[in-house]
Amino acid sequence: MELTWHGHSTWHVELGTTSLLIDPFFDNPKTSMEPSDLDPDYVLLTHGHADHIADVGAFGDATVAATPELTGFVADEFDVDEENTIGFNIGGTLELGDAFVTMHRSDHTNGLMTDYEFSGGMPAGFVISDAHPTEDGESTTFYHAGDTALMTSMRDIIGEYLDPDAAALPAGDHFTMGPHQASIAADWLGVDYALPMHYDSFPPIEIDTAEFEQYVETNASAAEAVVLDGDETFEL
Metallo-beta-lactamase domain: from which residue to which, for each copy (predicted)? Predict the structure, then answer.
């Protein structure tokens, strides 16, 4: 599995012959790429804030998967063909090509774009694996936590039963967890690799990633902190 970070919360995941793009937002300082540079099979959306769905309309050939509230919104507002959407919900697992994608809740808000009078349903994260979560045996699994606070379901459900090997964790503070809470999340999840995201895009979420590395070393000693440059790929 190849994980490429395009800044903020935008990840491109290659698994077998299947490519998935999570939270397309290319107007951030960590990427030099344009949406037209990518051709994913699927686009996954964690929630409806503008910095997570801004470029969804650029991927007309892809299938968009998110909560039904959010797929309905992007179909209406971003000219996404409704037939190219899949609405699913918290706890559900989809088989998308070679990938199994399980949606899990995140602790966040979910106003649509910048309008907080309308909700896009429960914010989410995604657990992406090369095997169904009910199957026994070895699997390779990546957890994109979405925009979230620290939550005990990371320890009691996601880490215990979905067993991710690597996690992309928001670490910018202010709107999500900061480096300290993200390191605790890495420990609770039991991952081998902790990758920070959702930082440095705007002044309120600028951080020193060395703090993230130090907190992971202290609070999640079994995990390795992996700080990627924008558009850099990590092979899991």
Answer: 7-198
